[in-house]
Structure formats: structure tokens, C-alpha cells
Amino acid sequence: MSASVYDLVFDVLRSFPSAIDELVGSNTENESLLHENVTIGGAVAPGKEFRILQPLWDLRLGREAFVASPLFPVVLSVTFYFTLCSPFMAADLWGKKWKWLQTFKIQPDFDVTYDHLWDTLLITFWNHILYILPAACAQWVWTPDTILPPVAPTLFEFVWHQFAGLIIFDVQYYVWHRTHHKIRFLYKHVHALHHRYAAPFCWVTQYLHPWELITVGFLTTTNTWFFNCHPLTTWSYMILSIIVSVEAHIGYDFPFTLNHLSFGWLGGAPKHDMHHLKPQTNFEPFFNHLDRLCGTFCPVMSAGGVRPNDLLEYERRQKETKKIR
Ligand SMILES: [Zn+2]
Ligand SMILES: [Zn+2]
To answer: Cα of 281 to ligand 2 centre, how many Å?
Structure first.
């Protein structure tokens, strides 16, 4: 067994007790580590305690003032969002003549134009100037600096805290989303803006009414508070949420996207694309289980706009139901 695989297995096994402690509300292991670890220039002393994420966490060394600042998570998430969307924007603009790329488009008849970019980026820009920037300034003034523990989270804690955060957000947003489709006033005055595009593309992710932007931002931020997450876990969860949200809106069904790598757990772009086409279905933002349980799941189109048999059957049943009514 190679050293890195050994370290991984060892780290996972050793994490179980602290994860169970976390579950019952005790954080004693981390607290004791905080107090007991011998540090050299802020790093954990070699041989004292090793965690597989420690090298990643140690990247903060020498940059503590910036990393601990309440502005850091805002800068990180905003920078990451624009960086992640940019290649998909380039694909939309300049990949129109690449036939191989077009075969992955879920709605191949929809062309992203400069007008669409201008429209979505303008809303995104104003949302950042009018809401995100003042919120960041308020945090900077009133929120204390993040406490940076010397020890990284265990791999188990790092993974399950993020997974739990996604599951909780998934439920919260399902309820919020379905309510904002069900109540006409809320749909018309809040969520309809996001549905201006029946075929999503990357910048539609944050093409949101301010109330939706604030709700999503608040839920994403506060979900990690339930678990008293390590800062590395919190920031990684923010990044993961952005990845899953952007992926849902890219409009391409690539074979390497998370919906293909998660054994059907994640809905990805095909599922959310279908929500933009049939807005009374597929309310769940990340996973599939709630939509299936609550009867709001609609089978999806795949790359190239292919309508599989389960979707054709679903549409046939919908037409029959309408006729009976
Ligand atoms: Zn959407
Ligand atoms: Zn919707």
C-alpha cells in the first residue's frame, strides 16, 4: 500500500471517534488538539499530529491576516464564481462552430448571444454592487476575524460536514423553490426573473431577484454553523455549492459532470434544464430523492436534446391527464 493511500485510510479510521463526538455535540478532540498541539511558526509540529488535509490547511501560513479577514470568504466565492463561469461563457460564444461541443448541448437550438450575456451579467453586476458589496463591508466592520486553528479538519469530518450541508440546503431550497412557484405573487415578483431563460447558460446561475440571492446566500452561509465547521470545511462547502449550482445551469450534458459521476444522486444540468423548460417539475437544486418522493420529478433530456423513452412516456401521461381534466 502506498504511503498516501495508507495515510488516507488511517486518517479516515482515526476520524470516526471525533465525528461521533461532533454528532453528540462535543468538540473535545478538536479543542484539545487546539490547545495541545505544539506549533512551529503556526504549523503542526512533525510527528505530533498529522492529518491528510494539513498540507492544504498550511497554505494559509504567511497569509493569516488575509485568510482570517471576514472579507476572505466573499472574495473567494465571488472570484471562484466568475472564474468557473468564464470557460463555459467562452464555449457558448466561440464553440458554436465546434460540432463535437454542440453534441453535448441539452437544448441545441438555443444560441447564447452577446445580448443574453449583457442582460445576465448586468443583473449579476448590480446584485454584487447593491447587495453583496454592502453585506461584505458590514461583515468587515462588525464581524470578528475568523479563528484559524493550527490543525486541519479530519478527512471524514471535512467530507461529511459538506455532504450534510448540501443535504440540508437541498431540503431548504426545495421548500423555498416550490413555494415560490406555487404562490403566484411570489413567482411573479421574485422567482420569475430567474425563469426568463427557458434554456439556461452559466450566467443564469446568479440571474436572481435580490430576495432569492439573499436567501440563497444566507442559507449557504448559515448551514455550516450547525456543525461548528472548521474554516477549511466552510470555505470548501461554499466552493462546492458554487460548483454544483453553476453545473446545473451550464446547459451542457458533459460525460464528466457530477450527475454522471454520482450514480444518479445529483441532478446536474439535464435535470435543472428540464426545470427551466417545465417549471412545475424538478424543484430540487442538487439531488433527485425529494423530487421523486414528492412526485415532482420529470425525466430529463440528455446531450443533443435527445428525449429518452421515460421522458416521452411522462409527456404522454401528462397530455392524457390534461385531456381528462
Ligand atoms: Zn435555474
Ligand atoms: Zn424555478
So the answer is: 9
